[in-house]
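Morning!

As promised:
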Amino acid sequence: MSRAGDQDPLEVHIKRKTYRRVSGDDLQVLGDIALAVASGEVAALIGPSGCGKTTLLRIIVGLDVDFEGTVRLPAHGRLGVVFQEPRLLPWRTVEENVRLAAPLASDAVLDGLFGTLGLAAHRSHYPGELSVGLARRVALARAFAVEPELLVLDEPFVSLDAELATRLRGELAELVSRRPVTTLLVSHDVDEVIGLADRIFLLSGSPARLLTTMPIQNPRSARTEAEVAAIRDELSRKANTARA
Amino acid sequence: MNAALRLGSIALLLAIWFLGSRLAGPRLLPDPQTVGLAMVAEARSGALAFNLGVTLARVAAAFAIAMVLGTMLGLAMGRRRTVDRIGDPWLVLLLNLPALVIIVLAYIWAGLTETAALAAVVLNKLPLATVTVREGARALDRNLEEMARVFRMSRWKRFRHVMLPQLSPYLAAASRSGLSLVWKIVLIVELLGRPNGVGFEIGTAFELFDVTKIMAYALAFVAVMLAIETFVVQPFERYVSRWRPRPS
């Protein structure tokens, strides 16, 4: 599998991000965070709930421009985003939802995505007719259909039952292996991303700072249980040191 | 069952009308048959179709202008707080100005012209459309807006596929109440300063105390509006809400 090496990496350098509280004083949500994701690499961003991960993502995808620092997106900055909620248009069918976001996607690409994600039978259904798991798959299909230069996923498996989450993780792994794309995956759960990521960023509690960066050398398919367990221990040790 | 109830209700109305006509006398309240024959006579002479057509054209023009302007204003006010602060006092003023005042002033300032007539009707309907659409604009889902932005959807796409479907219940409500309001005001405008239309005919009939003609025109127009509601508004509403799961 060749990786597109001519693309730029994702580079994020945030000095500070504050919110103005109702009472008038500022609340700092993000501290000094510098991270880079190489082209075609899957990076995971892990940190405790409420530490500011979603805020960081909103800054990266350009929905929040009120911060100190810089964000450099890969190449032309074409984004595929999977939000925490599926965010589908209820008045458009599954296929229309995907095509509206990705007007340039060919029929072959869509057929492939719908096939991999088990959506072939649901193309003409409306989102109100789908289960939560199916709706999340449509959100995944939409993000991949734009053939993004940066794929951003915000807790895409949260509030799914364990079996369904495992299956979706497998489908995601298959998609990023088939067509490597610079990916940033956010989660509060190490186990969720450990089998997917090439690199893990560990964030502290609020205001979030970058505690450590952990590259994983072995490719996804070749990781052993022992290796995964070692990474997990290492990460929890670092998180605990930071807390103490 | 439903159809039977509906027909029964209409039959009851006709029976009361018939009895009322017997009690009040045909001069004050002509019976249904007389009114029906008068409608046929007006239709034969071509006057009914002409006047209905003229009035309908005014209703359509005023309604369309008021809805387009009201949608634009409502969207701007619902989405931008500054615009809302500037526009709100004007809205309150227009909402509380009696229709008659607007009509009379329009005729005095712009003369007894078609433009003045239409402007008066539009100004009466505009604030109501604006207020309804503003509610809709305030209720727009920000999550979907953000989704459209990160996927770089064009302005037109965002309007057509993200915003408009969310506004459609509000637009439908504004259309419903708007259509009946507009046609009532068009009649007053015609009565006061136009040489044709249903309102003008009713004005003439009033001077001649011709109750039969008044009722013939009123009924004909109600029939037209009922047809528009049944064959245009309701199918359109079914179409825009086709994606909603129907209660079983």
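Residues 1-5 of chain A have pLDDT under 50 and may be disordered.

Hope this helps with the figure draft.
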